[in-house]
Amino acid sequence: MEGRRATRGVAPAAAASVAAAVVPGPAEVAKRGRKSTARNRTPSPPPRKASPARKSPGRGRPPKAASPARRASPARKASPARKASPARKASPGRKPAAAKVAVKEAVVTTTTTTKVSPEEPRRSARIRISEQRDKSPVLKKTLRDKQLSVILDDAAEELSKKGSPAKSLTPNTSQRSVVTSTGGRATASRSVSVANDSQEFSDHEDMEFQSFRRDDNGVREKSYARRSASKQLQDLREFGGNLGAAAVLLLVPAFIFFINHFCSGAAHRDCSFKLPTNLDEFKAISTYFNREVAVIFLLFTWAIALISTIPIGKAVKIVDEIRGQQSYVFTGLSCATFTGLAVFVAEYCYKYPLISTISKGYNQLLVISLVHALITALLAFAKSRYVPQTAWNPYAKSGRILSDFFLGREINPLSFNTINLKLVHYHISLTLALLFNSIILYRNVHFPTLPTSETDLPLLDKLTFIARNTEFEPTPVLAASLTILYLLDLLAYEHHLTHSFDLQSEGFGAQLLLRYAVFPFTLTLLPKYIAAHKLPEVPVWALVAVAALSLVGLAIKRSANRLKHQYRLNPLGEKFIDLETLPTFQGRRLLVAKAWGRLRQPNYAGDILQSVALLPLLYWRFAWPPLLAVLFTVALLVHRAARLNERNAKKYNSAWQRYCASVPYALVPKVF
């Protein structure tokens, strides 16, 4: 009877060779001749349901405790499953308790070379290799190795949850290939030898993880990192890097100085580029510097900085994706009002000739303003070393010192955690331009002197007499008035800068500060030239056309900026329900309504229209320096629009391409 059972058990044993190769069952323990007394020392385990492959007549009932050990047939002894490898003999799965759990859960695992606790999670062989690299003085674990281990462990965990019979991502460490049968499908795992730190993966894994491999000294990885970083920095480079920054730093101040110098003073009244026979004026220090003018400028800048700390103005709070919540207090009108009061007190209370001092030292004031801008940019660049790099301007992280100095590392630097330096220099620029044009307006309006017989009249009668007898030069007054209106609009609606390119994206560097420094002088050069020559022959219709063109540009710019500002503050408001917008992958929406549906930069278009509005007046008396000053302003606006378009293309990608297809022109319809 025992011989017949042994003969019938050959086939089931061969069918279950894979399971026996991994976990030996309690039946095999009995077959190897274990004594019944040793088995009776422990409590008898509960009967388990036999698998279909092992089911045979008489095998369903539990074996008797006193039955003698039976002998296996020669065919059973020759079974490959009987030959256990050393790794299999040392496996904790040989224990009967572990075998019951393994059979009950029907989980087939690969063999291991070391004893592992059942509660310890299974780890990848690549993690063990990386741990050895940590201990090795030559090999060090890199970030790619950690990422690879995490990827493999996550994939293995997903496969174990799904019960997928796909290839195991954890290689076998038994120095041989093991084929396991699960549900009729075979899967294979390539062995990994960790003795000499050599890695052997399957062909699929070799192709998949080839990019993660590196030399022992990490040369390949470092070169790849350098190439990727170089490509990224090249994509973010503006103004041509160090060479472009050096050219702008040298040429722009020289250009602005010369066009203003040849339109100032009695020697250059004609405002033409005619070099004098004697070049001593360019050798004298007084041409570039005046101590009195320098003191006035420094007092003026400090006063603007102090006024900026007083919260008298429009306050706006926004939430930025990178810098978090930000709050701004726009005090431009307060700065302009204080400057006007200071000039009035100096002129009429202390009898100090402030207006004439500023007019005579116009060129020296330009040089001092340029030097002040460069020194401030240098101090801001030094200050940025103590600011986390996460707060830096992404276009000023190239490592090129001159380029980073030119673009500015910080976006909105604060002094004493209170004063926004960018807004302070913006207020200095606008207020100084407003002061220049107010002086031009004041000198071209001639107020009458009250006769002694009318000094006792009431105030209303005095004002009526002054209004009736006041005379003015129409062309200089119109030019100065339109420029003052342009500046007052910028100061009154200064809070529209909250979402502008200058405030949110432009770095606080030499480029921005030089632009702020030259702005009052380029804007004032044409009204100053007109006031010097009066241009009385300009007809009234030309003055009306110039005024209308300037007002149209002002209306376009202000309406576009107002719509953009209100939409950015509350994009879900009732006013914007019917407005057409274009969604982006960043969660924002691009305006495709009203002026923003016709031009991509309608605010810059209106600004350009205001800048060129006074150019027709040069028809009656032409000069190159005023024309070049206006063209320089237009070139700055066009270049800024191109920079903004390029940055938006990198930021919004395909959404910006769709927007450009819908709104093909940036500044001029049907042209550009």
What do these coordinates show?
Helix content is 53%, strand content 6%. The chain has helices at 2-8, 10-15, 17-22, 26-31, 36-40, 74-77, 86-89, 96-105, 125-135, 143-162, 203-208, 219-235, 241-261, 280-283, 291-308, 332-349, 354-360, 362-383, 401-407, 421-443, 459-469, 474-492, 501-504, 510-533, 540-569, 602-611, 624-652, 654-662; strands at 178-182, 185-189, 314-320, 324-330, 414-415, 419-420, 445-446, 471-472, 581-583, 589-591. It has a two-stranded antiparallel ribbon. Strands 3-4 form a two-stranded antiparallel ribbon. It is globular. The protein starts with a helix and ends in a 10-residue tail after the last helix.
Strand arrangement, major sheet: 1-2
Proportion in β-strands: 5-15%
Characterize the largest beta sheet: strand count, sense, and whether it forms a barrel: 2 strands, antiparallel
* First-residue to last-residue Cα separation: 101 Å
Low-pLDDT residue intervals, each spanning 5 or more residues:
1-42, 52-60, 97-122, 136-152, 161-222
Structural class: mainly alpha
Principal-axes geometry comes out as globular
Q: Measured on Cα atoms, how large is the radius of gyration?
A: 42 Å
pLDDT averaged residue by residue: 75
**Helix percentage range:** 40-55%
DSSP helix count?
A: 28
Counting DSSP E segments of at least 2 residues, the number of strands comes to 10
